[in-house]
Amino acid sequence: MTSIDEDHSFALCLTHDVDRPYKTYQSVYYAITNRDPHHISTALRGRNPYWQFEDIMALEEDLGVRSAFYFLQEQRLFRDKPPWTWFRPSYWRLYAGRYSVTDPAIVDVIERLDAGGWEVGLHGSYESYLDDDLLAREKATVEDVLGHPVVGGRQHYLNLEVPTTWRYHSEAGLKYDASLGSQTGYGFQYGYDVLRPFDDEFVVFPLTIMESRLPPATSEEAWRECERLLEEARDNDAVMTVLWHPCYFSEHDYPGYG
Known about the structure:
Helices cover 34% and strands 13% of the residues. By secondary structure, it is α/β, with parallel strands linked by helices.
Protein backbone atom coordinates (compact mmCIF):
# COMPACT_ATOMS: atom_id res chain seq x y z
CA MET A 1 0.00 0.00 0.00
CA THR A 2 1.00 3.63 -0.44
CA SER A 3 2.38 5.15 2.73
CA ILE A 4 -0.31 7.45 4.16
CA ASP A 5 0.45 9.94 6.93
CA GLU A 6 -0.31 8.35 10.30
CA ASP A 7 -2.59 11.27 11.15
CA HIS A 8 -4.86 10.44 8.20
CA SER A 9 -6.78 7.30 7.34
CA PHE A 10 -6.85 7.71 3.56
CA ALA A 11 -5.86 10.01 0.68
CA LEU A 12 -8.35 11.91 -1.49
CA CYS A 13 -7.20 13.28 -4.87
CA LEU A 14 -9.45 16.01 -6.30
CA THR A 15 -9.25 16.52 -10.07
CA HIS A 16 -10.98 18.53 -12.81
CA ASP A 17 -10.83 17.75 -16.55
CA VAL A 18 -11.14 21.07 -18.39
CA ASP A 19 -13.09 19.90 -21.44
CA ARG A 20 -15.25 22.92 -22.30
CA PRO A 21 -14.75 26.17 -20.41
CA TYR A 22 -16.98 27.90 -22.99
CA LYS A 23 -20.60 27.07 -23.72
CA THR A 24 -20.89 27.54 -27.48
CA TYR A 25 -23.18 25.66 -29.89
CA GLN A 26 -24.56 23.71 -26.93
CA SER A 27 -26.69 26.75 -26.01
CA VAL A 28 -28.84 26.43 -29.13
CA TYR A 29 -28.83 22.63 -29.08
CA TYR A 30 -30.02 22.40 -25.47
CA ALA A 31 -32.58 25.17 -25.96
CA ILE A 32 -34.18 23.17 -28.78
CA THR A 33 -33.91 19.68 -27.31
CA ASN A 34 -34.84 20.67 -23.73
CA ARG A 35 -37.27 23.44 -24.68
CA ASP A 36 -35.58 25.67 -22.12
CA PRO A 37 -35.04 29.33 -23.12
CA HIS A 38 -32.36 29.67 -20.45
CA HIS A 39 -29.91 28.02 -22.80
CA ILE A 40 -30.46 30.68 -25.47
CA SER A 41 -29.61 33.38 -22.93
CA THR A 42 -26.28 31.66 -22.23
CA ALA A 43 -25.28 32.21 -25.85
CA LEU A 44 -25.33 35.98 -25.38
CA ARG A 45 -22.07 37.87 -25.20
CA GLY A 46 -20.71 37.97 -21.67
CA ARG A 47 -22.67 34.93 -20.49
CA ASN A 48 -20.61 31.80 -19.96
CA PRO A 49 -21.91 29.34 -17.36
CA TYR A 50 -19.19 26.78 -18.10
CA TRP A 51 -16.44 29.14 -16.89
CA GLN A 52 -16.30 28.05 -13.25
CA PHE A 53 -12.63 28.49 -12.33
CA GLU A 54 -13.09 31.34 -9.89
CA ASP A 55 -15.96 29.62 -8.07
CA ILE A 56 -14.01 26.36 -7.75
CA MET A 57 -10.90 28.16 -6.56
CA ALA A 58 -12.91 30.08 -3.97
CA LEU A 59 -14.62 26.88 -2.77
CA GLU A 60 -11.35 24.98 -2.44
CA GLU A 61 -9.64 27.94 -0.80
CA ASP A 62 -12.43 28.03 1.78
CA LEU A 63 -12.05 24.28 2.37
CA GLY A 64 -8.27 24.48 2.57
CA VAL A 65 -7.66 22.03 -0.27
CA ARG A 66 -6.01 22.11 -3.67
CA SER A 67 -6.97 20.08 -6.74
CA ALA A 68 -5.49 19.31 -10.14
CA PHE A 69 -6.83 20.92 -13.33
CA TYR A 70 -6.06 19.00 -16.53
CA PHE A 71 -6.08 21.20 -19.64
CA LEU A 72 -7.01 19.87 -23.08
CA GLN A 73 -5.32 20.82 -26.35
CA GLU A 74 -7.83 19.14 -28.67
CA GLN A 75 -7.90 19.13 -32.45
CA ARG A 76 -10.42 21.47 -34.10
CA LEU A 77 -13.25 20.16 -36.28
CA PHE A 78 -13.00 22.64 -39.18
CA ARG A 79 -9.25 23.16 -38.98
CA ASP A 80 -7.91 19.65 -38.42
CA LYS A 81 -10.57 17.23 -39.66
CA PRO A 82 -11.57 16.44 -43.29
CA PRO A 83 -14.80 17.98 -44.67
CA TRP A 84 -16.66 14.66 -44.69
CA THR A 85 -16.57 14.68 -40.88
CA TRP A 86 -18.10 18.15 -40.46
CA PHE A 87 -21.68 16.90 -40.65
CA ARG A 88 -21.33 13.97 -38.27
CA PRO A 89 -22.77 14.55 -34.77
CA SER A 90 -20.05 12.43 -33.18
CA TYR A 91 -17.37 14.71 -34.58
CA TRP A 92 -19.19 17.81 -33.34
CA ARG A 93 -19.28 16.28 -29.88
CA LEU A 94 -15.57 15.47 -29.97
CA TYR A 95 -14.00 18.40 -31.79
CA ALA A 96 -16.36 21.39 -32.14
CA GLY A 97 -16.49 24.26 -29.68
CA ARG A 98 -13.15 23.46 -28.07
CA TYR A 99 -10.55 25.92 -26.81
CA SER A 100 -6.81 26.47 -27.01
CA VAL A 101 -4.58 26.58 -23.96
CA THR A 102 -2.88 29.56 -25.63
CA ASP A 103 -6.07 31.68 -25.52
CA PRO A 104 -5.30 34.74 -23.35
CA ALA A 105 -8.08 33.99 -20.85
CA ILE A 106 -6.92 30.38 -20.49
CA VAL A 107 -3.29 31.49 -20.10
CA ASP A 108 -4.38 33.88 -17.36
CA VAL A 109 -6.31 31.24 -15.41
CA ILE A 110 -3.47 28.70 -15.75
CA GLU A 111 -1.07 31.26 -14.31
CA ARG A 112 -3.44 32.06 -11.42
CA LEU A 113 -4.01 28.39 -10.64
CA ASP A 114 -0.29 27.70 -10.63
CA ALA A 115 0.51 30.73 -8.47
CA GLY A 116 -2.20 29.71 -6.00
CA GLY A 117 -0.88 26.20 -5.45
CA TRP A 118 -3.22 24.25 -7.71
CA GLU A 119 -1.75 21.64 -10.02
CA VAL A 120 -1.95 22.26 -13.77
CA GLY A 121 -1.70 19.03 -15.73
CA LEU A 122 -2.33 17.55 -19.16
CA HIS A 123 -5.68 16.30 -20.44
CA GLY A 124 -4.49 14.24 -23.39
CA SER A 125 -6.64 14.72 -26.50
CA TYR A 126 -9.03 12.08 -27.83
CA GLU A 127 -6.52 10.45 -30.18
CA SER A 128 -3.28 11.04 -28.26
CA TYR A 129 -3.50 7.87 -26.17
CA LEU A 130 -2.23 5.98 -29.24
CA ASP A 131 0.01 8.73 -30.65
CA ASP A 132 3.18 9.43 -28.69
CA ASP A 133 4.23 12.36 -30.88
CA LEU A 134 0.84 14.04 -30.50
CA LEU A 135 0.88 13.51 -26.74
CA ALA A 136 4.38 14.97 -26.46
CA ARG A 137 3.38 18.05 -28.51
CA GLU A 138 0.32 18.65 -26.34
CA LYS A 139 2.41 18.34 -23.19
CA ALA A 140 4.92 20.83 -24.58
CA THR A 141 2.14 23.33 -25.40
CA VAL A 142 0.76 23.23 -21.86
CA GLU A 143 4.28 23.54 -20.45
CA ASP A 144 5.04 26.56 -22.65
CA VAL A 145 2.05 28.32 -21.10
CA LEU A 146 2.75 27.09 -17.57
CA GLY A 147 6.45 27.88 -17.63
CA HIS A 148 7.58 24.60 -16.06
CA PRO A 149 7.04 20.85 -16.57
CA VAL A 150 3.71 19.17 -15.91
CA VAL A 151 3.94 15.95 -13.95
CA GLY A 152 0.72 14.12 -14.83
CA GLY A 153 -2.79 14.14 -16.15
CA ARG A 154 -5.62 12.12 -17.61
CA GLN A 155 -6.64 11.08 -21.14
CA HIS A 156 -9.82 12.51 -22.67
CA TYR A 157 -12.80 10.15 -22.34
CA LEU A 158 -10.54 7.92 -20.19
CA ASN A 159 -9.06 6.55 -23.43
CA LEU A 160 -6.40 4.03 -22.55
CA GLU A 161 -4.42 1.26 -24.22
CA VAL A 162 -2.62 -0.71 -21.52
CA PRO A 163 0.33 -0.54 -21.22
CA THR A 164 1.06 1.45 -24.40
CA THR A 165 -0.49 4.72 -23.26
CA TRP A 166 1.33 4.60 -19.93
CA ARG A 167 4.62 3.98 -21.69
CA TYR A 168 3.99 7.03 -23.88
CA HIS A 169 3.28 9.05 -20.74
CA SER A 170 6.44 7.89 -19.05
CA GLU A 171 8.59 8.49 -22.13
CA ALA A 172 7.14 12.01 -22.45
CA GLY A 173 8.29 12.77 -18.92
CA LEU A 174 5.03 12.45 -17.04
CA LYS A 175 5.22 11.00 -13.54
CA TYR A 176 1.65 9.73 -13.27
CA ASP A 177 -1.58 9.03 -15.14
CA ALA A 178 -5.16 9.15 -13.82
CA SER A 179 -7.01 7.65 -16.82
CA LEU A 180 -7.73 4.19 -15.43
CA GLY A 181 -11.46 4.19 -14.70
CA SER A 182 -14.94 3.22 -15.79
CA GLN A 183 -17.07 4.98 -18.39
CA THR A 184 -20.20 3.42 -16.93
CA GLY A 185 -19.73 2.99 -13.18
CA TYR A 186 -17.77 4.04 -10.13
CA GLY A 187 -16.00 2.57 -7.13
CA PHE A 188 -12.72 0.84 -6.33
CA GLN A 189 -12.73 -1.57 -9.28
CA TYR A 190 -8.93 -1.37 -9.53
CA GLY A 191 -8.07 -1.72 -5.86
CA TYR A 192 -7.30 0.68 -3.06
CA ASP A 193 -3.76 1.68 -3.93
CA VAL A 194 -1.92 3.40 -6.75
CA LEU A 195 -0.44 1.12 -9.41
CA ARG A 196 3.13 0.95 -10.70
CA PRO A 197 2.84 -0.74 -14.13
CA PHE A 198 6.59 -0.64 -14.82
CA ASP A 199 7.80 -1.26 -11.26
CA ASP A 200 9.46 2.16 -11.24
CA GLU A 201 8.52 5.69 -10.19
CA PHE A 202 5.70 6.06 -12.74
CA VAL A 203 2.36 5.87 -10.91
CA VAL A 204 -1.25 5.24 -11.97
CA PHE A 205 -4.09 6.74 -9.91
CA PRO A 206 -7.28 4.74 -10.61
CA LEU A 207 -10.40 6.90 -10.87
CA THR A 208 -12.95 6.20 -8.13
CA ILE A 209 -15.76 8.65 -8.95
CA MET A 210 -16.66 10.63 -12.07
CA GLU A 211 -19.62 12.88 -11.28
CA SER A 212 -21.69 11.96 -14.34
CA ARG A 213 -21.68 8.26 -13.41
CA LEU A 214 -23.31 8.81 -10.02
CA PRO A 215 -27.08 8.62 -9.50
CA PRO A 216 -28.81 11.95 -10.35
CA ALA A 217 -27.10 14.63 -8.30
CA THR A 218 -30.42 16.10 -7.19
CA SER A 219 -31.16 12.86 -5.33
CA GLU A 220 -30.07 11.90 -1.83
CA GLU A 221 -28.74 8.66 -3.30
CA ALA A 222 -25.87 10.48 -5.03
CA TRP A 223 -24.48 11.88 -1.79
CA ARG A 224 -25.07 8.59 0.02
CA GLU A 225 -22.91 6.87 -2.59
CA CYS A 226 -20.17 9.48 -2.14
CA GLU A 227 -20.26 9.00 1.62
CA ARG A 228 -20.20 5.23 1.24
CA LEU A 229 -17.10 5.38 -0.93
CA LEU A 230 -15.39 7.81 1.44
CA GLU A 231 -16.05 5.38 4.28
CA GLU A 232 -14.73 2.51 2.16
CA ALA A 233 -11.59 4.54 1.48
CA ARG A 234 -11.16 5.21 5.20
CA ASP A 235 -11.64 1.56 6.13
CA ASN A 236 -9.07 0.38 3.59
CA ASP A 237 -6.35 3.08 3.83
CA ALA A 238 -7.18 3.85 0.22
CA VAL A 239 -6.05 6.36 -2.36
CA MET A 240 -9.35 7.71 -3.74
CA THR A 241 -9.48 9.86 -6.88
CA VAL A 242 -12.47 12.01 -7.83
CA LEU A 243 -13.23 13.81 -11.11
CA TRP A 244 -15.60 16.80 -11.27
CA HIS A 245 -15.67 18.62 -14.62
CA PRO A 246 -15.75 22.41 -14.10
CA CYS A 247 -18.87 22.86 -16.23
CA TYR A 248 -20.79 20.64 -13.78
CA PHE A 249 -20.61 23.47 -11.25
CA SER A 250 -23.13 25.36 -13.42
CA GLU A 251 -26.30 24.81 -11.39
CA HIS A 252 -28.84 25.38 -14.15
CA ASP A 253 -27.01 23.21 -16.66
CA TYR A 254 -26.20 20.40 -14.22
CA PRO A 255 -28.52 20.71 -11.20
CA GLY A 256 -27.13 19.44 -7.92
CA TYR A 257 -23.57 18.65 -8.99
CA GLY A 258 -22.00 21.82 -7.65
